[in-house]
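WARN  no MSA supplied for this record, continuing single-sequence
INFO  ligand: zinc ion
INFO  echoing inputs
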Amino acid sequence: MELIDEVRELVAATEAKSVELAREIWNYAELPFEEYKSAAALIAALKAEGFAVQEGVAEMPTCFVASYTVGSGKPRIGMLAEYDALSSLSQEAGCAVKKPVVNGAPGHGCGHNLLGAGCFSSAVAIKNYLVKHQKDGTIYFFGCPAEEGAGSKQFMARAGVFDDVDFIYSWHPSTNNGISATCSVAIMGANFIFDGIAAHAGGSPQLGRSALDACELMNVGCNYLREHTIDQARIHYAYSDCGGTAPNVVQAHACIKYEVRAPKVRQMQELFARVVNVARGAALMTDTKLTVEITMAFSDYVPNTALAEIANESFMELGTPAWTEADYALARDILASYDEGTAAAIRDEFIEQYGEDALPEIMEKPLDRSIERFEKSKMAYECGSTDVGDVGYVVPTVTLHTATACLGNVGHSWQNTAFSGSDIGMKGMMKAAEVMTLASLKAMDRPEVIQRAKAEVLRRNGGKYTCPLPDEVKPPVGRY
Ligand SMILES: [Zn+2]
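INFO  complex generated
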């Protein structure tokens, strides 16, 4: 039997359980670090398949590592499962009008229910292949919580969880099929806490030291800083404590959150240090005390080019999900649910990407039927961030995408929650499982590609992963 046919068969055998898991986790829709039921469902399913499971990994209760070893256990291959939801995106599955299941409740607006369950399919298919052929190897299923919050993979990387892994193929739900050459940027977030002295703002202002003034001056300083950064840098902020609601009390305490992004982790760290200096200046000007509390950081994600070649080859052989007329009808209906402004932006994007002539056909059948090949020459940073970046600084890693939503669909939207619980989502998920499985099995038999893939990681990390977070920063379980 050809490998590709065997992969199709092995993955198909997992479909019923995988779809059940995806729907179950979609229903739970648990927020970052609260994914107790979702993790438990995946763990139970993996144990039933004979995987050994280690829970509570890297000081996170909903983080786990499941593994299955055959023979010598080498090579060691892995996948990165996520299962957390987003707040306020509850929406009925496959429903094209806004209709929350529970008003204001979380929803799977990034499709992580599919992400975790798709990895389950692939891990089980690979395990069954190794067992059937008595082929040496270990398959790791990494249960990674809180991707939408403070992340978890950087803590896992710091704890050495990925150290002995040879390569990782993973995936993320998307509007398109393929292996993107897009890189994501590094990020660091921190609370800047200012402590001053309260006083009657009218009667004895000379006695007060305003923490709110310090925040405002920090913002002014950062506004000037922006001109002197690289174009791709971003500096975001939000008040989490503005010192109270009374103008006639000098604010004794205030907290402002900052997030700093730049393409490479080194660039991001340099910029972050400058933001800290601005905050120091603000504290000096206002005679307040500054505390900087780093809360999160991700390294930049750069796809491994050696692994991406095998993913290209595997995806092309397997082809795209098979869409039905009912799938196109749902995709059309959900696409039509966007307001005028968003709909116009989506149409412009279609025209830019596919050309004016293709527009009527795309509007009629808005589900991706093409596969974007990974092209090294197209590698470029885009301004998002993911904790997968840190994994890529330890072990060769590639994230592929499959269409689980209509073309042009907006991420983190109620429309996305609707797709993530629909047949379209399930089909995209099963395709991702096929591609990850075929690519992993092919890569296992190509030690020279793995060597090249590892050489890329070595060039990036200089021989050792360095976590962008200081050691004292622990996973913010229950407080992010
Ligand atoms: Zn996501």
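The first helix runs from residue 3 to 12.
INFO  checksum written, moving to next record
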